[in-house]
Amino acid sequence: MRTAAIIQARMGSSRFPGKVLKDLHGEPMLRWVVTAAQSIPGVDDVVVATSQADTDGQILEWCGAQGIRSVAGSEEDVLDRYRVAALEVKADFVLRITADCPFIDPWVCGQVLTLLLRTGADYACNFDPRGWPDGLDCEAMTRAALEQAAEHATRQLEREHVTPYIRAHRGRFRIANLGCPIPGLSEERWTVDRPSDLEFLGAVADHLPGNAPVAFPDVLRVLDRHPDLREINRDHVPGEGFLRSRLEEPSGGSRGYTASAEMLERARKVIPLGSQTFSKSHTQYPEGGAPLFLTHGDGGRVWDVDGNEYVDLVCGLLPVVLGYRDPDVAAAVQRQQDSGVSFSLATELEIELAERLVEIIPCAEMVRFGKNGTDATSAAIRIARASTGRDRVAVCGYHGWQDWYIGSTTRNRGVPEATQALTHTFPFNDLDALQELLESHRGEFAAVILEPMSAEKPRDGYLEAVARLVRDQGAILVFDEVITGFRYALGGAQELFGVTPDLAAFGKALGNGYPISAVVGRSDLMSELERAFISSTFGGETVSIAAAIAVVDKMRREPVIEGLWKTGRALAEGVRTLVAERGLEDVVHLAGMDPWMLLRYQDHAAGRGVAMRTLVMRELLAGGVLSLGSHNVCYAHDEADIASVIRAYTGAFDVLAEAIESGSVEKSLAIPVIEPVFLVR
User: Fold this and answer.
1) What is the distance between the alpha carbons of residues 96 and 82, in angstroms, rounded to a whole number?
2) C-alpha to C-alpha distance for 163 and 138, rounded to whole angstroms
3) What does the mean pLDDT of the chain come to?
4) Cβ atoms 506, 319 nearer than 8 A
5) Residues 103-143: pLDDT tens digits?
6) Residue (of 82, 17, 96) closest to 50 by Cα position
7) Distance CA 550, CA 61 (A)
8) How is 362-392 classified by DSSP, letter by letter?
């Protein structure tokens, strides 16, 4: 079984032409990479794969003069170039290295290769997710996996960057990643994309014990002694070439959902609805035209079991606020997993997170943790009932699946009538309606719970008036901030609007996808938990708490909240422009605020609003955007993601306009309309 290290090299870089043969400390940069590749344990052959372009003849000449094997293939189709090179040397396993990484470490590459061989994976790398410095990238794959990718990959991005097809199809290929054991290295940039990168590496090389091969600890020692060297190339965007490819790539294309359909059939035999969550089930997506199962996510994108890629505007129903596989959260989780997950007594982590929440949330004096939003809202209601000795509750918005709330909705099956009778609904922004409700059972309401901001903004003075009215009635004011918390402001909507409740429930974004929620509030009320029973085995589960601490710390350190507002605003402005250009203002409008916008569709002579929503969802999916009709933005959504979403909306609104013009949206839709689970907003 033979292993070949294939080095991708060309002269025609758009940002730094001819870089691979530029001088680095007395030798061409390509020599550094070849020498490192020849030192990788387990490598039998080293091949330089360049193109048939005239300019790349210099690379072939250099390789010939140095006695280095080389192969010339397609200039644009780099994936096929690798296939040809692997066949030429009869390699069973392939290591992919690029010629712009002169500090590539043979020891790290050897570990990637060993990981592939020892695990029986089809593909292994050391940057998915990224933990090592940019410039130590190495990929290993079987030739069979490479040939499958070459046969089936259709996107230009997949052909240019060689391995995205393999990493996307995790139902077809077994994937492994070599994580970096040293934290904080993912921000290091040791690759050459621009002249300043070469200047930086040259300055580092001046302090190294010798030329290639380079050991990455030696580079770190140089940078520890001379940290100012990092300023030479600090202003570059990581992964600039890949980002450019994403920006240039058209949306949509042929999409199949065969694997999703097969998996749904399997799942429904053992799982009601085939999903743990109503809003994630097949009932909430266009029939026959949607993914139903995902394999992985990265940043602001996800991939389904058929290998289709999407910009994710669902983000796990809003928990994923930083982005999938956020490096800071991942590092915190890994550190804690190394110590254990659930313990027999409390841990200091519980105190550390509680202290942070008390510092940033206006109403928080004490904290109790749960696992989901329902835990937190239900705890708040029990505290309110215990402290007031009353039973009735007034609700506005969505507050979870427990009997005390869900009994007030149309999904009340299984909830005793006696329980249903204790919960009363009231409309948002209607103070008179709330006052009338409270007066109808004066002295009987334990709590008024509402989402302080949802699809509708609170009118000036509304939340302040609600607070006065509730307290005049001797009831407890509870803000359900499961959605608004860590999204509109660090301290939630109560910080944004300057109105402090007695208790509040937080969840979703608190853990960036890890299951954690919190009920917070006045200490005199929270002290009821020393008598009223709310206790759970996993309330102090440490991995999710560690994740939440990392989320809070990152939001304090970086402009996360500002980023959510900025991304949401860009999407909203783009949608409004498209709607106006197509004369759809009467049927489509945006509701909410920039960090969480919802699209509203009005009934029209040509069709119901729910039919229009279904049609737009279907077209967005075809355009590579996963959506439930709202903009659940995350910090990782970037310029390319925004561009992809706007392109998808362009096509979707074109189809909607044509359907309305035809006189029948549902006839144009030709699939069942998606009906909401129930309406609360």
Assistant:
1) 9
2) 11
3) 95
4) no
5) 999 999 999 999 999 999 999 999 999 999 999 999 999 99
6) 82
7) 52
8) TT-SEEEEESSHHHHHHHHHHHHHHHH---E
- Beta pairing partners, 49: 8, 71
Tell me how crowded residue 458 is: count the other CB atoms within 10 A of its CB: 21
In angstroms, the CA 424 to CA 512 distance is 32
Report the alpha-carbon distance of residue 50 to residue 40 in Å, rounded. Answer: 21
Q: Of 599, 618, 594, 601, which Cα lies nearest the Cα of 668?
A: 618
Spatial contact of 462 and 429, defined as CB atoms under 8 Å apart:
yes
- Active-site entry in 19, 280, 371, 508: 508
Q: What pLDDT is stored for residue 349 in this prediction?
A: 98
Dihedral-angle region of residue 60 (phi above 0 means left; psi in -120 to 50 means alpha; beta otherwise):
alpha
Reported as a pLDDT band with limits 50, 70 and 90, residue 678 is low
The model scores a pTM over 0.85 = yes
pLDDT at 212: 79
Distance CA 671, CA 65 (A): 64
Q: Is 594 considered catalytic here?
A: no
Name the residue type at position 365. E
22, two tokens = 């530029």
371 labelled catalytic: no
> Which residues make beta-bridge pairs with 125?
139, 177
Active-site annotation holder among 165, 324, 398, 635: 398
Check whether 254 has a pLDDT greater than 70: no
- To which H or E segment does residue 506 belong? strand 503-506
- Take residue 422 and report the two structure tokens written for it: 């204790």
Quick check: 212 and 46 in contact, CB under 8 A? no
pLDDT in the model for residue 302: 97
- How many CA atoms are closer than 13 Å to the CA of 475, on its beta-carbon side? 29
Work out whether the CA dihedral 661, 663, 665, 669 comes out positive or negative: negative
**Residues whose CB is less than 8 angstroms from the CB of residue 554 and which lie 6 or more positions away in sequence, other chains included:** 322, 326, 328, 329, 560
Span 606-614, mean pLDDT?
96
* Residues 340-356 as b or e (16 or more Cβ within 10 Å = b): eeeeeeebebbeebbeb
Q: Of 480, 502, 594, 638, which is the active-site residue? A: 480
Q: How far apart are CA 543 and CA 546, in angstroms?
A: 5
Q: How confident is the model at residue 240 (pLDDT cuts 50, 70, 90)?
A: low
pLDDT at 235: 78
User: In a 3-state reduction of DSSP, which class is residue 679?
Assistant: coil
pLDDT exceeding 70 applies to what percent of the chain?
97
- 667 is known as an active-site residue: no
Task: Give per-residue pLDDT as tens, 440-497.
Answer: 999 999 999 999 998 899 999 999 999 999 999 999 999 999 999 999 999 999 999 9
Q: Report, in angstroms and rounded to the nearest whole number, the Rg of the chain calculated over CA atoms.
A: 28
Tens of pLDDT along 316-357? 999 999 999 999 999 999 999 999 999 999 999 999 999 999
